[in-house]
Amino acid sequence: MFKILNYSFFDLMRSRWSYVYFLFYLGLGFILFFLNNDITKAVITLLNIIIVLTPLIGTVFGVMYYYSSREFTELLLSQPIKRSTIFIGQYVGLSLSLALSLVLGLGIPFVLYGVFQSAAIWDFATLLLIGAYLTFIFVGLAYNIALSFNDKIKGFGFAILLWLFLAVIYDGLFLLAMVFFHDYPLDKFALSVTMFNPIDLSRILILLKLDISALLGYTGAVFQKFFGTALGSVLSLLVLTVWIIVPTYFMVLQARKKDF
After folding, report:
1. Containing domain of residue 15, as a range?
2. I want to staple 120 with a disulfide (CB 3.0 to 4.6 A). Which of 39, 189, 241, 249 is the partner?
3. How far apart are alpha carbons 58 and 96 in whole angstroms?
């Protein structure tokens, strides 16, 4: 597994798309500090960018890497290697390379502008952690979609549809439900529904960490009311961890049953 992970990781680190991804965040970090030297404001600005862009990149890269390396994967499958070893190695290698590009791309400008001397260092660390979590989650979901469809067009289509649903449509449907059933107690419903969307959950976790009550929204306010800032953050991280474990489990399950 570690040999496959190592190969996948360094193969992607040599890819020009990894450099593009790295340079995008590097340039974004320097532009934010050029416009405003306040680290806290930079973290808040990056919040919506990372929440939306990181899942999209993880989804697209996951599907693209699976289809582009399918012949190599079939070669590995012909060897006496467990299927779970092959796919977990590829999945972790891809996720690590994307997460590293994100962390280094944003980390370099923040370090140069003195994040270690700032009170916002833990907020920035939480932002990077959430970015890494979302990368692992959506690469895992992308691998599940790619394993389900041999046709590349269908795979890419369903992957983009999944990202669009969780990033945009899900919130709209949730808002409509809150409007139609506003006469009923919806606190527990809001909590449970939020946990089924890692993007919303990540946004709430960062806002709880930043303690910006005006931006928390209804579900964030419910989190703060029922659990408090610390407990709400721990609960969010636990649910996000489950979001990594469950797609990985189904990915391995699909890989074992799939006829290559």
Report:
1. 2-257
2. 39
3. 11
